[in-house]
Write a structure and sequence with these properties.
The chain is of the alpha+beta class and 158 residues long. The protein is built from six helices and five strands. Strand 2 and strand 3 form a beta hairpin.
Amino acid sequence: MSQSQQKPVPPVSNVFAVDPTAFIKKTANQLKTFPEINPPREVKLGLWKTSCARELPPENSEEFWYIRSASLLRKLALKKRIGVSRLRKLYGCHQRNGVKPPHYRKCAGKIIRRCLQQLEKAGLVQIEKAAGRKLTSAGQSLIDKIAHDIVRETAASK
């Protein structure tokens, strides 16, 4: 075949190749269809903060739960195996101390644990002995499908 007759190469469609913001939004909307994943009552009431360094809870508490779960799925897809302690470091922030220098604080571990437990009940995540948690084949296929949809949408819009 000559170069003019070759088929175009399809774009790569995995979690590394898509925009993280679009990926997390689409995954959060997809997670709303799972009956196992729902925000706890305390989150709906706005009683849980995401870190000791934060002054207020998230503004949209119900959406926050799905967004954090989607973000956790993305982190698991990128890192393969990761534990709650490492995730607490990734989602941590600097605590403002007025005129004193800021200090780094880890985020709340209970939120991460509860999200991961709900993702386990949904069959998307499983516990790996002495290595934290990892995606199951169902979780990986969900992520690949969402990434493929995003790549297809961006290719169609060009």
